[in-house]
């Protein structure tokens, strides 16, 4: 059976993952943008008490499977009490029970495992895999770069929503590129357009740190476009949690030692997932005099629920405004917006009084 690849949708990173597989000569049916219907379909098939990303990613496979995809790639990268390491087995079992004949490839994020699985499925040379991975990293870096530029520009732009228009255009253009030279040319064009956005340099911009579980933090369709909404309220969002952050942790093992040393007064052991990272990031935001911190987590996410009392303690000790938002298939956007509006008011009052 010829492999026709699909994978879980993950925000803007979906573009880079699609290109990675295509550069290795694989046929790909990319997952469609997640919406409420996608999530509900995934939730219907999922174990009720399992965490939200399993349901959302399961739902994101279904349209691609209906179009002919027969091979699913799932990266497993979690320890401690995080249940993400079971996603592959559970999703494979659920889909096969529904009658789908699929090959489910579930592997760890070590370079050896990634290379082994890509080599097995693509049957291309090591050099071609290297070239595909290299282009993937370039595309990944550009996506993260323009996301960070947008975080800075949104609260300062003179013409409202101009940043988002350019960002949407840029992502569409990146999705069409599969050549290194064209990507470099496009990068220069995107950064030039962003640099021409008129900003109010005198505007008193507030700063809020976004922490939590990586899927809910990085995917704007899952977190109801929280970065955009805060930016429109003249709040600059900072988000350390992204793929590059984890690549650095994998390449530089002492990063974990630095994290543990920083959070040791609050937590002396691992809890899995991104729990320790959340504590570390919040402590950094307090040290840098941020005006607030928001934790995003899937409902019933064990690592994030475990560290939430510690984050509350840091909030009480420092006085920094703190909001924890749990997301699942039953959460409505209007409810999130109401809590966000109240939090923005608290942040603005806090900023006036410091």
TrEMBL record:
InterPro entries: CoA_activase_DUF2229 (IPR018709), Dehydratase_Activator_Redct (IPR051805). Residues 13-74 form the DUF2229 domain. Gene3D superfamilies: 3.40.50.11900. Pfam families: DUF2229. Coiled coil: none annotated. This is DUF2229 domain-containing protein. It comes from Candidatus Nealsonbacteria bacterium CG08_land_8_20_14_0_20_38_20. The lineage of its organism: Bacteria, Candidatus Nealsoniibacteriota.
């Amino acid at each position: 059976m010829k492999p026709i690849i699909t994978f879980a949708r993950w925000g803007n990173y979906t573009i880079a993952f699609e290109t990675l597989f295509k550069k290795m000569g694989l046929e790909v049916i990319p997952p469609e943008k997640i919406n409420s219907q996608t999530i509900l379909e995934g939730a219907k098939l999922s174990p009720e008490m399992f965490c939200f990303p399993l349901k959302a990613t399961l739902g994101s496979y279904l349209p691609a499977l209906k179009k002919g995809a027969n091979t699913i790639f799932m990266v497993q990268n979690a320890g401690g009490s995080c249940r993400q390491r079971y996603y592959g087995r559970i999703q494979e079992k659920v889909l096969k029970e529904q009658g789908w004949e699929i090959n489910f490839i579930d592997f760890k994020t070590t370079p050896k495992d990634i290379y082994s699985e890509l080599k097995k499925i693509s049957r291309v040379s090591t050099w071609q895999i290297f070239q595909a991975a290299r282009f993937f990293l370039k595309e990944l870096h550009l996506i993260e770069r323009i996301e960070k530029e947008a975080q800075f520009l949104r609260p300062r732009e003179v013409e409202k929503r101009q940043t988002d228009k350019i960002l949407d255009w840029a992502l569409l253009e990146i999705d069409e590129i599969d050549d290194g030279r064209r990507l470099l040319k496009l990068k220069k064009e995107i950064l030039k357009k962003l640099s021409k956005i008129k900003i109010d340099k005198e505007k008193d911009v507030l700063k809020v740190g976004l922490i939590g579980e990586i899927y809910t933090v990085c995917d704007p369709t899952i977190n109801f476009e929280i970065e955009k909404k805060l930016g429109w309220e003249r709040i600059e969002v900072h988000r350390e949690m992204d793929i590059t952050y984890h690549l650095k942790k994998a390449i530089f093992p002492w990063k974990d030692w630095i994290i543990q040393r920083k959070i040791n007064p609050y937590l002396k052991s691992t809890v899995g997932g991104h729990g320790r990272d959340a504590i570390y990031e919040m402590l950094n935001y307090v040290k840098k005099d941020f005006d607030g911190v928001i934790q995003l987590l899937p409902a019933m996410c064990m690592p994030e629920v475990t560290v939430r009392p510690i984050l509350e303690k840091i909030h009480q000790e420092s006085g920094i405004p703190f909001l924890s938002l749990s997301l699942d298939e039953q959460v409505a956007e209007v409810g999130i917006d109401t809590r966000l509006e109240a939090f923005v008011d608290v942040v603005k009052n806090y900023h006036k009084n410091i």
